[in-house]
């Protein structure tokens, strides 16, 4: 391996990073992470930081989860690859679909379709939703509705239903027939509504209005994250998703829960849908399913959709969709080892308890630092939205929030900065001491720019 300087210099020269401007890499080189243990990262200079990002919302059990590592190594030895296209399957693929049916039974999910990650899962979910309607003879039900500020990955379908201009503008034209309604985001919304319950009602009404405006017989599905993640951590009022379920049912529209972040305990419940007491028709999962150690995902399929496909006798029911790495046996083995660990360690309860502490600590910081405009969270998904003027809610500039990041990093905590937001999504196994350390590092960062 080359030395620290070689890695830093050549990173800027040769490597294009997701969600980054290639020209920015010289001025603000990324942190080069070389090793990790527990919840701690070590960079190329030997500097250690507590990972308050949890990889990318995915390393829920931390970096030392030996059963998952062992399962991956053993599966590589035994059967490193075989396909699950029509005519073949593998042991781990069958085992995993069997286990997932058990784990997701309370969510009403009865079948699995495997993918290589979140964007693949979203794409699969959108396509299965359209096919479901075609199978049933509703061939005009092709449109999708979603939330502004929602994030559903970067494939063309996912980007089309995503609600952030940064991921859309440069890639247009996107998929036709995708429409967006306001998110239940109390800090900024077109209704000037700060009461979460009333705002939930307005947003739900906007969904119903949009379905009626488009013509219910043209709408295939509504897709939402139970707690919006990448858009800045927006937990809706508890009434929102149940209202959405009811509206979708009334108009024959499928509900796709994008649980790429929220599944496997992050919100304090096994899934975000379960947190809100809702059974979606399709559920997209990925990320923590393998603790981030192997690229993997799935679409979980509810009973209604499964039945439509399985009872269809003609060619409409055949799934003309799939990936070379759908049901990759190593990914399946990783998930099979990861999910019992996730349950055994009862990480969801820890996420709820530590999440409440983290939210309270961030609320405390808001009282001390005028730069914090809003604090939001559910479980171990927390955001601090920074503003340069609290009354006007002016988003902070890139340089200011960049300095907060650097100071916190020097203090020993890796944060994630996204627009004006500091986003916290640490491993679900963190301790109360870790929570205090994260809050102290953010406080130091904010003090440095005050
Ligand atoms: N959906 C949601 C809700 C996500 O948060 C993400 C990734 N952050 C995706 C889809 C896309 O997943 P991936 O990056 O694994 O393709």
UniProtKB/TrEMBL annotation:
Keywords: Aminotransferase, Pyridoxal phosphate, Transferase. It comes from the Bacteria. Pfam families: Aminotran_3 (PF00202). The keyword Transferase applies. Its cofactor is pyridoxal 5'-phosphate. PROSITE patterns: AA_TRANSFER_CLASS_3. Belongs to the class-III pyridoxal-phosphate-dependent aminotransferase family. GO terms for molecular function: pyridoxal phosphate binding; transaminase activity. CDD domains: OAT_like. This is Aspartate aminotransferase family protein.
């Amino acid at each position: 391996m080359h030395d620290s300087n070689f890695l830093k210099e050549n990173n800027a020269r040769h490597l294009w990073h997701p969600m980054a401007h290639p020209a920015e890499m010289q001025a603000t080189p990324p942190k080069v992470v070389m090793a990790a243990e527990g919840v701690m990262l070590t960079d190329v200079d030997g500097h250690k930081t507590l990972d308050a990002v949890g990889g990318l919302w995915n390393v829920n059990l931390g970096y030392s989860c030996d059963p998952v590592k062992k399962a991956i190594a053993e599966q590589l030895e035994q059967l490193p690859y075989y396909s699950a296209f029509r005519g073949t399957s593998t042991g781990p693929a069958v085992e995993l679909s069997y286990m997932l049916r058990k784990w997701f039974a309370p969510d009403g999910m009865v079948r699995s379709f495997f993918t290589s990650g979140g964007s693949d899962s979203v794409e699969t979910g959108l396509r299965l939703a359209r096919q479901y309607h075609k199978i049933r003879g509703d061939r005009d039900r092709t449109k999708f509705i979603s939330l502004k500020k929602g994030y559903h990955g970067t494939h063309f379908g996912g980007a089309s239903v995503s609600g952030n201009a940064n991921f859309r503008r440069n890639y247009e034209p996107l998929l036709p027939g995708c429409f967006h309604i306001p998110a239940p985001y109390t800090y900024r919304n077109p209704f000037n509504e700060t009461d979460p319950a009333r705002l939930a009602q307005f947003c739900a009404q906007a969904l119903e209005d949009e379905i009626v405006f488009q013509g219910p017989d043209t709408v295939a599905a509504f897709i939402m994250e139970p707690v919006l993640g990448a858009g800045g951590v927006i937990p809706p009022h508890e009434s929102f998703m149940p209202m959405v379920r009811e509206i979708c049912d009334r108009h024959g529209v499928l509900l796709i829960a994008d649980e790429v972040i929220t599944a496997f305990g992050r919100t304090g419940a096994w899934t975000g849908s379960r947190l809100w007491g809702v059974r979606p028709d399709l559920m997209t999962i990925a990320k923590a399913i393998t603790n981030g150690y192997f690229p993997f995902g799935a679409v979980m399929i509810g009973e209604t959709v499964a039945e439509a496909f399985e009872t269809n006798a003609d060619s409409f029911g055949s799934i003309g969709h799939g990936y070379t790495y759908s049901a990759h046996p190593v990914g399946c083995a990783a998930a099979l080892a990861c999910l019992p660990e996730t349950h055994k360690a009862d990480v969801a309860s820890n996420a709820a308890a530590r999440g409440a502490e983290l939210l309270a600590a961030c609320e405390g910081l808001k009282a001390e630092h005028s730069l914090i405009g809003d604090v939001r969270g559910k479980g171990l998904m927390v955001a601090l939205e920074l503003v340069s003027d609290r009354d006007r809610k002016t988003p902070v500039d890139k340089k200011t929030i960049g300095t907060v990041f650097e100071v916190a990093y020097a203090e020993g905590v890796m944060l994630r900065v996204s627009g004006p937001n500091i986003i916290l999504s640490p491993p679900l196994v963190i301790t109360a001491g870790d929570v205090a350390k994260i809050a102290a590092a953010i406080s130091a960062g904010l003090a440095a720019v005050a």
